[in-house]
Structures are given as C-alpha cells and as structure tokens.
Amino acid sequence: MPNTQPVAESQAPGDARPPSRVRQLAAASIGNAVEWYDWYAYSFLAVYFADQVFPKGAGNSLVPLLSTFAVFAVGFFMRPIGGLLMGAVADRRGRRAALTVTILMMGAGSLLVALTPTYATTGLLAPVVLVIARLVQGVSVGGEFAASSIFLVESAGPGRRGLFSSFMYVSTTLGQLLASGIGALLAAALTEDQMGRWGWRIAFLVGALLSLIGLWIRRGAQETLDLARDGEPAARPGLFEALRRYPRQSLLICGITAGSTLAYYTWTSYLPTYAQVNAGFDKGDALIVSTLSLAFFALLQPLGGLLSDRVGRKPLLLTFALGFAVTAVPLLHLVTDAFFSLLLVQCAGMVLLTGYTSIAAVVNAELFPARVRAAGIGFPYSLTVALFGGTAPYIGTWFKQAGHADLFPWYVAVLCLVSFVVYLVLPETARKPLER
C-alpha cells in the first residue's frame, strides 16, 4: 500500500504530486555529506596550508599550525549563531530555503579557502580571508543540523521517522570519510612540497563543486513545512520565540546533547590522538583504525533507527548513556599501543553511541511543534555541541598536560550520566504523530 502521509509541497498550490521519499532522503543526506566534507577537509589538510597562511613565530615551527586550529575553533563557535539564524530561516521561509542557504554558504566558504592567498604575497590579508571563510562555514554547519535533521524527519513515512533520522549521521560520517579519503589520495599522488604549495587547494575546489551538486539535488526536493494555514500565510515566528515559549524543551535539548556530543567527538575524532598521547600508538595505524571504525559506525545507523521505530526512542538513549557511564573508564583504560586494542575500543564505543546518533534528529524534532522546530533545535543544540563536543580534544589534552590523564574518562562518564538522568524524564514520542 503506498505511503500517503501528507507533506507540504514546494510546488504551486494546485500541484498535488506526492513527494518522493527517496528524493527527499537524498536531498538531506547528500547535501549534509557535502557540508561535512567541506568542514572536515579543513582539519585534515591544515598541516599542509598552515605555513602558507600564517607566519612562523620566532623559533617555533608550531605557530602556523596552532593558528590554523585556532581559526577552526572560531568556526566551531559560530555554530550556535548559525543554528539560530538558519533555524529562523527554516521556520519562516521553509526547510528547503534554509537547506539551499546552508549549502551555498558552505560551498562559498570552501571556495574562499581554496583561493586564500599566501602570507608571503599579501601579508595579513591571507589569515583574514581564511577567518572569514571559516566564519561563513561555521554559520552554515550550525544551521545544517537543524534544517537537515527536521527535513529528514518531516519527510518520513508513518513508522519510519527513526529510520530517516539515522541518515543524518550516515551522511555526516560519509562526508568525514570522503574528506580523509581525498586528502589521503592527494597526499599519495603529490609530493609534500606540491601539497604544501598548491595541492591542498584541490580538495577545497572539489568541495565547492560538490556543493553545487548538492544544491541541484536540494532544489528538486519538496517543502515539508506548511507555510499557510487555512489558505492564509502563517504568522512568522520571532527569532527567540522558541526559547521564550518552550524553555523546558530548550533545556532538554541541552541535556540530551551534552553527554552524547562529548562521547561522539571523543570516539570519532579524539580517540586516535588520545591513543597516540597516552599509549604511544602509531599515527599511521591510528588513521587506519579511525577509518575502519567510522565505516562500521555508518553501517550501524539505519539499524538503530529501525530499532527505535519498533521499541521506542528511550530504550536506545538509556542504553547509550548508561553504557558509556559504566564503560567509558574501563574502555579508555584498555587502549594500548596494539592495533586491535584501539580498534576494539573504538568499535565498542560506536555500538553504544549508535543508541544516540541514529535517533538524535528525531528525538529533537519530536520535542517542538513545526512552527518553531528548526530554531528551537538549532540554537541550544549547536551551543551545547560547541561547549562540550568542540572542547573534548582540548580538555583531554589539558588533563594529560596537567598530569591527570586518568580524569578524562571520568569526565566522559559523568557527563553521560547527566544525560542518562535527562533521558529518564523524556516523554516517549515514537508512537505519537509528529506535530505539524
């Protein structure tokens, strides 16, 4: 029997064509993968272009690289602003409008990075251009989660919101893998000197081109927000209306996200570095382990989404949070310089993490009515990610430098326990219709 759940159309009022679920899924997923390719390409290739954009400090060759990662952090803290602004666009102008803006901004930022002049030729203009590019990309990626995640959830058929939600992190992981793969391919095909002079720019030009492809796919998608009520244009929500009218839901978003984002960035981004710093793990082997575990992680997501549609959201969330609260310390203590120790720890964490990531989009979306759903999710989610997820590598390294490396696993465990308490009070929404 065909799926006939109503979805608002982006076509003329007389066009009654039902939306293609596959096209809707592709519009969100492919565009999101492109967004994250552009975002992660910066961190993978920073080591090659740092010397080109920033001057070296007196006798310190690490100054350019540190400056480059400082710019990366600046982009990270633009995400809450992007979540608020692009969320407002999604709630006022429609989800498709916001998705169009975010991918255009990410592509423009990627192109600007590719065209960033060198410090040797333009002086201070070089780092200024790079900062502007990352500010634009920070706003873009901050708005992408809110717009793309609710677009996925609102496009899903009955009983399939969890499954559609899972493709948020499938596409995020694919974007990350694509960025590392293209970076590795360029590094293998070019000499280190060629990579440093011009090779790194190719990856960002590819990102700009991929953004155009993603834009084309998204332009063919259909709107999921009903922009009219009873034949009249719907009143546009205020910029801070979601925070003002739904403070409890906004705080719940923060509690839902705090432990999960710390666990996510620890296991998907920081764990290889943690193994190198604390166990002397080989850098090349760490990259292989990271790639294998990320591919495994992507395959797990649809399974988690499907399971949540059958048993509910809360069992998965509670399993994730309690699992990490109990096992984060012993798992991180199992990391040694042996290849399979890190692979086992990373994959075990990915299994637990799937209890959150596969349904993050739908859990957040089911808390808010459609009118303020994007802005209601975008700002508190992005702010919490910036505070806890974005700082995970820094805090882990700081604990090591302070001589208390053993405290970082406890930090992960305690924050996951906080999220566990939040999950206990969450209402179960899997069987309820999504409020339009």
Describe this structure in words.
- This protein is an all-alpha fold.
- The protein folds into two domains: 20-224, Up-down Bundle (Growth Hormone, Chain: A); 245-429, Growth Hormone, Chain: A (Up-down Bundle), CATH 1.20.1250.
- Helices cover 76% and strands 1% of the residues.
- The chain has 17 helices and two strands.
- It has helices at residues 21-53, 63-76, 79-93, 95-114, 119-122, 125-155, 161-189, 192-219, 241-245, 247-279, 283-311, 314-333, 339-357, 360-365, 373-389, 392-401, 407-425, and strands spanning 228-229, 232-233.
- Strands 1-2 form a two-stranded antiparallel ribbon.
- A hairpin with a 2-residue loop joins strand 1 (228-229) and strand 2.
- Helix 10 packs antiparallel against helix 11 (283-311).
- The longest helix has 33 residues, at 21-53.
- The protein starts with 20 loop residues before the first helix and ends in an 11-residue tail after the last helix.
- Mean pLDDT is 86; it is low at 1-16.
Brief summary of the model shown:
With 436 residues, the chain is mostly helical.
**Total strand segments:** 2
Low-confidence stretches: 1-16
The shape is: globular
Give, in spatial order, the strands making up the sheet with the most strands: 1-2
Please tell me the overall pLDDT.
86
